[in-house]
Amino acid sequence: MKVYLLTAAGVIFLSVIVSLILPDGKLKKSATFVMRIICIFALIQPISGLFKLKDASALDGDYFDYEYVCSVYSDHQSEQLGLLLEKKFQVAADCTVDVGYKDGQFEVKKVEVCVDVNNEKIIEEIYAYLDGLKYINITVYAKSS
């Protein structure tokens, strides 16, 4: 409130000084008009603050359901990874990609792959392939019967 009062008083004081300094004529009329508009804006500033909307940079978790977005993103990534592994290694694989939201970015927290064949070589190849793709917390295992 103190800042608002000082701003309003300063703008009004500046308006008075400008109207006293300028000589009579068109310039004084124009300057007086501009200073009155500035005074009006300074005085109604608290009212305009009631209608101010947040800008996009001020958005936080209250506006978006990041948990839902992460689950949809996880499901999609899991499905696509399963198709990729099936195409590359010719094995059926159930994949689970856990995606989380941290520091303004979506990131993969862990990857779990369950292959239908109990072949240690294929499991190691899949692990190395996922590691090469820069996945973290990778678990690859064979489906138990």
Write up this protein.
With 145 residues, the protein is an alpha+beta fold. Helices cover 55% and strands 18% of the residues. The chain has a 3-stranded mixed beta sheet. The model has no long low-confidence stretch (mean pLDDT 84).
User: What is the makeup of the main sheet?
Assistant: 3 strands, mixed
DSSP summary: helix tally: 4
Strand arrangement, major sheet: 1-2-3
What is the CA–CA distance across the termini?
A: 73 Å
Strand content: 15-25%
Mean pLDDT: 84
Question: Portion of residues in helices?
Answer: 55-70%
Question: What coarse outline follows from CA principal-axis ratios?
Answer: rod-shaped
Count of DSSP strands: 3
Radius of gyration, rounded?
A: 32 Å
Along the chain, the helix and strand elements come as HHHEEHE
Unreliably modeled segments: none
Derived from helix and strand composition plus strand pairing, the structural class reads: alpha+beta
Topology at a glance:
Blueprint: H1 2-21, H2 26-48, H3 66-89, E1 93-102, E2 105-115, H4 120-132, E3 138-142
Parallel strand pairs: 2-3
Antiparallel strand pairs: 1-2
Helix pairs in contact: 1-2
Give the gist of this structure.
The protein is of the alpha+beta class. It is built from four helices and three strands. Strands 1-2-3 form a three-stranded mixed beta sheet.
Keywords, separated by commas or semicolons:
145 residues; single chain; three-stranded mixed β-sheet; alpha+beta
